[in-house]
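Below: protein 1.
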Amino acid sequence: SSHEHRLNFKKSKEVCLNYVQDAMLQKQWKRAAEFLTFYIESLEKDFSRECIGPSEMIWRIGTEILYRHSHSSMKEFSSFIEQMKTLGVKRYLKVCLEHAFHLLCNGLIDEAYQNLSLAESWQFGEQTAIQDKEMKLIQAYRGLLDYYSWSKQKNILLEHGLDGFEDLPAEQEMHHCFRKAAVNLKEIIKIPGVWDLFVKCYVDLLEFYGDRNEAHQVLSEYAYNSKFPANPNAHVYLYQFLKRHGESKKSLISVLKILHDIVPSHELMIDFNTMLQKSKKRKKRRLGLEVIFAALDYAGWKENVKAWNCMARQVKQIVISKKHLDWIKQEWNSRKDWWPAFHFSRYLAKRNWQGNESLSYEKALVAGILLGKDSKYFKYVSHQGCKAQVKRFRILKKFVNKHNPV
């Protein structure tokens, strides 16, 4: 019966698609290409009245296969993509964007720019809200390529010195690229989202032409506008900008405080801790200790010499002054059940001593202050240091023996 025929046909298509996916998972790109060809042929023979929209599936699978296939060429890839553009107008701009990415990955910058320019001039009926966003992405990436051209021209001028070169075609081209890039980059970063690369490029343009206030406003908006998703990089860019322009420590600390709340393990926590330790305000020094303890909760910091140096310096100052010992106790109470095994085991002591003597010293000092002279880490490292006749390890041993563990 016709119903049974349609049912069998549908099953055969599903089986064929499963073979394609299986071949892709096993990285058998030639086999995957063959099955995809069969799948496309089966769709062409599908006379059912069901509403089927397989074009996006074919586009995504086909793109991946051609990208990975050892015998595929750029000509074949471009030919396939051009066919995909005509399969569904709703996906036209997405396909254009992916085509541009592929061209860029293969170093074909001019071709990518041309592709984006053609996509920008595309129109089909009334533009929907989704198409409007996609068009802005097209314009934004074209703006990035304009920024790339501007950067190239800028470097040429800087190599020869800017003075006396006002009439050079290179400078005129540079200013032309600046105007085109600035317009498109400025538009995209108004839309709530994560636009790290676009923001960095736009700020670079503004800084080069001396528009520091506008650059500051852009970065502040990107970091603090509640409509934008929480983004640690936004605060990093603002911090780097403020530091670059010699802003006050108060401003820098304010930015890093928010970054600490979002990502307590960020590498800038070293800078944050250093600034807080130097502060005359007790509240900030207290925060500094909290910051370094929180950073060392993460495995990525276990062998960070700078971090352990910050920790050792601050806890040593507290122990010597005998003031604010309660700060250390408060931080240690929530960690005493797991830090000894996490940071201060005999195995780690042996490995650290063999790999980095400075790291061993800093960690041994902290272990001695927190756990006392019977700490496995402290005992092993201090013994090895004294055996190697390193003076600072003998001083370390005397210091820990003199002071009771916190």
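Below: protein 2.
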Amino acid sequence: QAIVDFERLGEHAAVFRGHDVGFCCLGTTRAKAGADGFVRVDRDYVAQAAELARAGGCKHFVLQSSRGANAQSHFLYLRVKGEVENLVQAVGFDHCTILRPAVLLCKRQESRPTEWIAQQFLGAVARVFPTAYSVPVETVARAMVACVLQPGEGKVKVLENRAIHELGKA
């Protein structure tokens, strides 16, 4: 484990050397970082980390994105997620897996009342439609590991929420 300064990520290139696989779940919220900070963290930092990983020898990069990611979206969140997906794919990894989970079900240390209400509602909905609108973070983590252990064919693989559920249970 290494601590890096993302504002000076290029100075930490050595940390990214010698790894076959890279996992990226980096992200923030617009409410926490502002619009410019959100773009810097969710797009710029991730793209730079991917470039450093590839330059350091990484063969398979696994990116947690979001359901609905689309570089042409009018919504900042979905547009930035789509843009970073495109940037990471352009880096040229041997394998690139992009996971697009729906609402992540998790316990947070920080208070996010609106998210808590949504999670309570979606947790109940998940009992009837388990793969439709949400996914536990533990399932996403298992799917990320499984996609590396069973990379399959093709250079780029995009896993939507249902596929994340299936792979995360394997």
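The longest strand covers residues 95-100.
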